[in-house]
Design a protein that fits this description.
Elements (H helix, E strand, L loop, with lengths): L1 H53 L6 H24 L7 H15 L2 H5 L13 H4 L1 H16 L6 H22 L10
Bound molecules: heme C.
The site of heme C has 28 residues, from α2, α6 and α7.
Length: 185
Amino acid sequence: MEKEQEDNVPDQLDRSRMFHSCCHHAIRSGLRLIAPCLALLLALSLLGTQLDAGSAVITDRYVKDRRALMQGQKAALTTLSDMVAGRTLFDARLAKAARRDLISSTGRIAKRFRKHRMEPNSHARPEIWTQWQDFGQRADTARLTAKQINSRSLAGLRRSLPAMMQACQSCHQSYRRYPNRAITH
Ligand code: HEC
């Protein structure tokens, strides 16, 4: 009996030593895994707050959709204004795609705003729905101006883009709260 116990002692010690070194190893390799995981989580949460800044405050689907439409217009317009300003090289293919984007998105403005939906963080003015006809006309004008964008050459773009910007801005001045001087937000 005593003998057996004595024999077990080194065995137990050995096992506990093994256990410790195993733990140690697990913790160390775990840490090696945890570090990149933490970095990833941090990056994701930072991205999350950035996305939240524009989207989480708006919950209504219609308000979200109409703002997404506007953001799309802003992106297309920026592509073109960057070329005109010389921030990017003129690219006829990209310019043509941006022009098409603007024609189709300005054509959807009236549809996106038809329902009278409001949220505290929306910048839409209630006059949109009391002066619906005028709002619709501004959207039509914007679509016509988008069609008149000349995307075939830089000179053409330079001549035709100001009218587009003006069309965006004039509607914002009447129907958007806190109108920005530059249409592109
Ligand atoms: C017929 C009116 C009208 C026209 C034309 C128009 N907008 Fe808007 N736009 C609005 C209104 C109203 C809002 C505010 C929407 C809201 O906050 O619910 C808005 C909001 C925006 C926003 C902010 C979106 C956000 O996420 O808060 C941008 C950017 C924008 N418009 C860009 C443009 C550009 C670029 C054009 C021209 C190609 C344009 N808009 C043409 C009415 C118009």
